[in-house]
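Task card 7
Instruction: Convert sequence to structure tokens.
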Amino acid sequence: MGLGGAALIAVVLAVVPFVASITGVRQASQIVIGVLAVLGVNVATGYGGMISLGHGVFIGVGAFATGYYVDGLALPWLLAIALGSATAALAGALVGLPALRIKGIHLALVTLGLAIVFQPLSKRFPRFTGGVSGSGIDAEFVSPSWWPSDTRMATAVYRYLFCIVVVGLALWATWNLVNSRLGRAMRAIRDNDTAAAVYGVDLISARLQTFAVSAGLAGLCGALQVVLVPFVSQEKFTPQASLVIYATAVIGGLGTIWGSVLGVIASTIVGKVGQAAAGADGFGPIGEFLDLLDESAFVFGVGLILLTFLFPRGLAGIGRRNQVTS
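Output:
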């Protein structure tokens, strides 16, 4: 994505608080933080070459941990968010241990299995997760004294801007990471781990660090979810959610930072178009098909199929014939 595309996104983000309702601002905030989860998959798969179909788990870990830190331990919000992300990163390092021995489809199956067992497992720890019914967060993420917080809209806008700043910093930090020594090691392992080892890359350290960073980004997404909605439930972190995150990363383009942003934008647009088409009347038998567009899973699935055929390298790969996406 060039400077023109980045500028367009910045303009859209700046306009949202002036044209959207409170609900619209909150939805926009959710879309913004969704970039973090997709970025996490991109780090693991696009740069590290390790297929992960279970990143919804790390979002859940980050959300549950942040809720416990801010409510159970009464820690300040900023510290709780940082620790929530760090807890997810630690979980990612532990999950990354199998990546030391297996890779490819076998690693994908392991991470998918983790996504499947996460929901029933989280029910067994009600002190941290709220069990079956979930857990409400009593602590409120409030704006500072210098920010006008006398209305719900003002509070929603502050949280929206806070999310934008955090996501922007995460994108900047990730860009620096993938262009650092660790980033070069990640790409070397992705392309040929045997050759990387011959040239002195520590495969164990690089793989664990890659998975930890990847999970930490997803955990940061979960932490910000708690900021926006003070309630955490295991029902949000289904295996399907993990698959959608991975698919979104593929749509945007693996192996590129901006691919994560483009993937989220594309999935959002596809969803909005589906909702608009589902509300159309007067199409006779075609209307029965359009009614299916009320189902978000159906809309996303159809959109994924179309975008995969149209842009096999992802949206970020348009016009880049020599791009390696892995």
